[in-house]
Amino acid sequence: MYLKTSFYIVLISSVAFIAGCGGGEESQDTMSEAEPMAEAEPAPEPMAESFDLGGGTATEVHPGQAGSPHVQVAWVVNDANITITYGRPYLKERVVGESVEPMSDRFWRLGADEATTLTTDTDLMVGGTHIPAGEYTLFTQHMSDEFHLIFNSETGQWGTAYNSDHDVAHIAMAVSDLNPPADQLTLSIGDGELGFEWGQMAASVELMVH
User: Fold this and answer.
1) 4 or 54, which is more confident?
2) Is 78 domain-assigned?
3) How far apart are CA 18 and CA 3, in angstroms?
4) If you average pLDDT over residues 145-159, what whole number do you get?
5) Taking a C-beta distance cutoff of 8 angstroms, is the pair 168, 152 a contact?
6) Quick one: 126 and 181 in the same domain?
7) Cβ–Cβ < 8 Å for 205, 171
8) Within a domain: 44
9) Tens of pLDDT along 38-95?
10) 128-132, long-range: CB within 8 Å, 24+ apart, which pairs?
11) Same domain for 99 and 202?
């Protein structure tokens, strides 16, 4: 009687052990078949805000190293797409020609920090001078009694790194007094002209699509 009872106990324990092992294997299979959790997609970067500036659409490039924000401004003139990227300094009670550029008989980067860059996908006529489609840096300089806009083919340099060997054209600009003065430099394209306002100075030159 004792042997039969022991045999039944061992048999029941063995069946329970096997059933338990089978349940573990089924659970393992279920876990291995589970799909991995989807990775969270990164949040999209906020789009740069655009605003109207100088007759074109501007976006900020960076805030500038000394508080002169850099912008890229886009214009569409007939069939030409023109962009100018430049730093916009503030006057801060300084006087153009006395304590801030442009100074007499000196070149100026027509902006702040990096060289000011103009890009056009169509040939232009600027002040009667043919400017082929391409990318240029813009400078200005007093030339005797004239104030010139300079197109230079060297690009990507710091604004004070001016090399006249790469000059494409020197074009006389019409200069007038501005009242009230412009506290921040603004370049503009409109009404058939390319120009800028800075302090009490306004300068412009005729611009047409070739």
Assistant:
1) 54
2) yes
3) 23
4) 96
5) yes
6) yes
7) yes
8) no
9) 566 666 656 678 999 999 999 999 998 888 999 999 999 998 999 999 999 999 989 9
10) 128/171, 128/206, 129/169, 129/171, 130/210, 131/168, 131/169
11) yes
